[in-house]
Amino acid sequence: MKNDTIAGVSTAVGNSGISVIRLSGPEAFLIADKVFRGKNTVSDQKSHTIQYGKIISDTNEVMDEVLLSKMEAPRTYTREDVVEISSHGGYTIAVSLLNLLYKHGARPAEPGEFTKRAFLNGRIDLSQAEAVMDIIQARTQRVSKVAVRQLEGSVSQILNEIREKIIILLSNIEVNLDYPEYDAEEVTLVQAGKETEGIIVELEKLINSFHFGKLLREGMEVVITGRPNVGKSSLMNRLTRKNRSIVTDIPGTTRDTIEEFVNIKGIPVKLVDTAGVRETLDQVEQQGVERSIKAIKDADLVVVLVDLSQGFISEDKILLNKVLEHNKPYVLCFNKTDLIKDKASINEMSETYSDAIFMSISENKGVDELEERIFGFATENSQDIDNQVLITNARHEHQLKKAKEYLESALKACDLKMSLDMVALDLKVALEELGKITGHHADQDVINAIFSRFCLGK
Amino acid sequence: MSDFIGGEYDVIVVGAGHAGCEAALAPARLGLKTAIFSLNLDSIANMPCNPNIGGTAKGQLVREVDALGGQMGISADANFIQSKILNRAKGPAVYSLRAQIDRRAYSDYMKKVLEMQENLDIKQAEVTDILCENGKVKGVRVHTGTIYNCKALILTTGTYLKGCIIIGDSKVSSGPDGLLPANKLSDSLKELGIEIMRFKTGTPARINERSIDFSKLIEQPGDEEIVPFSFMTGEVKKEQVSCYMTHTTAETHKIIRENLHRAPMYSGDIKGIGARYCPSIEDKIVRFADKESHQVFVEPMGLGTKEMYLQGMSTSMPEDVQLKMVRSLPGLENAQIMRPAYAIEYDCINPAQLKLSLEIKGIDGLFFAGQINGSSGYEEAAAQGLIAGINAAMKLQNREPLILDRSQAYIGVLIDDLVTKGTNEPYRMMTSRAEHRLYLRQDNADVRLTPIGYEIGLVSQERYNRFIEKSKMVEKDIKRLKDTIIPANDTNNDFLARHGSNKIVSGIKLYDLLKRPEIEYKHLSEIGQDAELPKEVIEQVSVSIKYEGYLKRQMAQIEQFKRMEERRMPEDIDYSQIHGLRIEARQKLNSIRPQSLGQASRISGVSPADISVLLVYLESRKRKLSEGQSC
User: Fold this and answer.
1) Which of A388, B255, B518, B557 is the most exposed place for a label (fewest CB within 10 A)?
2) Is A133 in Cβ contact with B580 (below 8 Å)?
3) How many angstroms separate the CA of residue A427 from the nearest CA in chain B?
4) A225, A349: one domain
5) Which of chain A's residues have a Cβ under 8 Å away from the Cβ of B433?
6) pLDDT at B266 over 80
7) In terms of residue numbers, what domain contains A313?
8) pLDDT of residue A254
9) Residue in B170, B204, B149, B184 with CA at minimum distance from that of residue B339
10) Inter-chain contact B91–A422, Cβ cutoff 8 Å?
């Protein structure tokens, strides 16, 4: 219970954009050494010092530049060997780093587990025992809420389908084992192998999609709107070129709005470029306008782009009112400041519109500030984007991968012509791993399936 | 009151079925003065249902009972009329022994074992009252008013408590097999504050063999090579009798459907909860309407009788319907029913009231075993009987109770399931219930349990010596296989080719050779590398080599499991006072009162976070205690 090494995030992505990943346990230094390249190895690093270095992925790529602090037991938070890795990379990097640590033998920390260990190892005073118990229970409830939210929709449906398939295969095998004289069709190793293979393929698909999770796939929706030719596409290009675009297979990109997924400081963002909005009689354009207004309705944040060289005209203001009508948070951006000779007028404007960003997309001015705004908005307002989601996502992915390992072992047992009870053993563990995500008990499910599917009796 | 005191005992056992016999033999063999009560001494170790012992998971239970020094295996070996190993091809974790038993011979044999046992008195009487004083068992009163005093009491009443037999619309107060019911004892239990449940089970009809046309049945002979249950039984050679198979027809299903309204299960006359795995034939036809035919096995009840048991045709239909149903089976067109099928309802206790020792919480010295705990099956009963018997003795000898955990034995799984989770239907053992079943095999039951039985004192020196001898042979042969390297020559490669195995290019250890699924131990004789060893030794050697990888993984799981089991929960915890536990967890923990953190984690309604909270609680309690001491 105590003597394994755990990994988790100890601070939120938060406004700072820094996440701290903590490793605690006897193998903390060993595991850290497998992912970290610095001047010294972590094992050789002096205790209670900080070292700069890089996180290296399995494929030998540099994932992130980080600061690593090493703390030898017992003068640490948990009184175990502790490593803390501070990363600037934000959400995706943090998840990838966690995954990497899990892969090298760390176990996902349970909610409140660092604190629990601190207490069990005597670092936290007896008088705080009750507070510790509260923390454990409260964090668990928070995490399970997040997990439920995370598992809503298609992910949970696919997961349940996979579980169901394993349960059926297992109950087919188990009924043969527990009721050898019952006239159920005998499952052969070849059949079992074939079905296991099919399940692995589906699980693989789920794992691949899971990496970005619901949050990442849908992201925070930022809609860029404005009259035609104010620079919406340029802004979009600038943002997508600058930020690594997230590969997506989301269908339904409409002709009139262009959607791109980008990762802004670790926050997944779906950028929507609307067709130019203005009052029009043109039938085709009218449709575009309606779509744009719909996009505004769905947006988490609207960027209202204005061509300041043309002035802040009534059409811009009508558009801004539309956004206000829908009660949407927005960022007002005055573009093409480079075309304005009269700098004083800009200053004047900035006094009136103190929240607005004055930018020149073509000169790449003000774009960084917009990014800051988007990031700040996301981390302030979105409950979803906090370390719980991050941890939950990584934890789920870890369980899925473990389940896959056991399914592969079952497949191998079939290929090697081991006996069916060994195959069942692997399948059962795979099911248990998936059950850790969904909170189901493998044994009960299989036994229930046996009785509901087969007609047994004396 | 001038009650007649009929006797003073250390241990009294009420009921002489499969649980009762083990429960009485164990303390008597451990030197305690013991008495066993039965409503009828002609029904000792009776098999009112199927005439067989063993089967999947149940066979493992019998082996475990035997390895601990219990009786069932030896009695079964002495009285079987057909023996079979099930699942031979499906893997070592699920090999299971099953034997058809001569019912009367078994009962007589067991009665004599009881009669011959030192320290054991056998009495025919109905126990009507449990006598308690200050939360401690004092004795029992029987129907005649006589009182028997005891220090520990084990109730193994089977299906007799307020037993009620239902056939169609006839509902009669009765024990199984037409024996007397015990109508008073459950009231005495209720008065003690014990929660009673009502369960239901059933049994099919018995047919006169002479009325069966065997030419239409499929014969099922026993195995040529007989494997005994007991580690003490040597080689067995015996003439065996066959079982037979037939099946239900469209006609059978039609008869049942047309008469469903007369089935008590559907008319609402039966209130007891039956088991899902043991449905009546009418249940099967309703629930699995698309299945056109069900198997029916025709099994002999013994050598001294022509009665045949119809496995698969359990029912509570009225007699006229039963006769039509039976006669619609191929080969049974002229069948004469000797005893009709029936359903039986009975009282049992909610087993979640028990400790893992099978003593009930709150009443000192009162133990329960067998069907009264909500289980079903002779083997499940015997296993619990043995544990209750041992623990009654341990208590009186001021020794630690024997609690087998889920990684040690099917017995541990059985008792932990019943006690920790309770049951809402008669509980049957299955291999799929045992998460460590690869380790809980029938071939190594002695490795797992004989040292424990020896420690307790139930395992004789002779049995223990045999076990040690066998273990040495296993160890020695494994060493030989590890040390012997065969060269890559033509003889050896021809041998491998013959068995469809890959060629070797350099020398290979026999040990590694045996890891190949296609190479079996017996094949080694072809290259002169086998050893003259008993079958059971070879089996254990083969399994431990062939499945080494899986076994290692299982042992790692077991180690992890043990760490949680070893964290004892102090008995005086008031869970309702533990800060941070959810309300549901507090209630469940207070009622089950787990003995270890591991057991707590298996209670439904106790979450992993609650377990973390308990860990913190245990630690703070420990620190408080040590701080208190230092003052």
Assistant:
1) B518
2) yes
3) 12
4) yes
5) 443, 447
6) no
7) 218-364
8) 39
9) B204
10) yes
Give this complex's ipTM.
Answer: 0.86
pLDDT higher than 80, residue A105: yes
pLDDT band per the 50, 70, 90 thresholds, residue A395: confident
| Cα-based distances in Å from B361 to B137, B192, B423 | 12, 11, 17
Across chain B, what does the average pLDDT equal?
94
Q: Does domain B461-560 have CATH number 1.10.540.10?
A: no
Three-state SS annotation for A243-305:
CCECCCCCCCCCCCCEEEEEEECCEEEEEEECCCCCCCCCHHHHHHHHHHHHHHHHCCEEEEE
Min Cα distance A178 → chain B (Å) is 6
Whether residue A417 lies within 8 A of chain B, CB to CB, comes out as yes
């040590």: which residue's tokens? B626
Between CA B335 and CA B341, with CA B338 as vertex, the angle to 5 degrees is: 90
Chain CA centroid to CA B560, Å:
26
**Residues A458, B620: C-beta atoms closer than 8 Å:** no
Closest to B102 in 3D by CA, of B241, B221, B202, B213:
B241
Q: What is the pLDDT of residue A252?
A: 34
Write down the CATH superfamily of domain B1-52+70-84+102-407.
FAD/NAD(P)-binding domain (3.50.50.60)
Tell me, yes or no, whether A223 and A337 share the same domain. yes
Residues in chain A within 8 Å Cβ distance of B288 = 455
Higher pLDDT, A112 or B155: B155
Indicate if A204 and A244 belong to the same structural domain: no
Q: Give residue A256's pLDDT band: very low, low, confident or very high (50, 70, 90).
A: low
Residues in chain B with CB shorter than 8 Å from the CB of A113 are 612
pLDDT tens-digit readout, B316-330 = 999 999 999 999 999
Distance of residue B136 Cα from the nearest chain A Cα, in angstroms: 37
Q: Write down the pLDDT at residue A255.
A: 44
Q: Which of A120, A181, A183 sits opposite B616 (nearest CB)?
A: A120
The domain segmentation of chain B, as residue ranges, is 1-52+70-84+102-407, 461-560, 567-630
Q: Which residues of A touch B287 (CB under 8 A)?
A: 455
The shortest CB-CB distance from A451 to any of B92, B277, B431 is to: B277
Indicate the residue of A178, A416, A458 with minimum beta-carbon distance to B50: A458
Contact across the interface for A456 and B277, Cβ inside 8 Å: yes
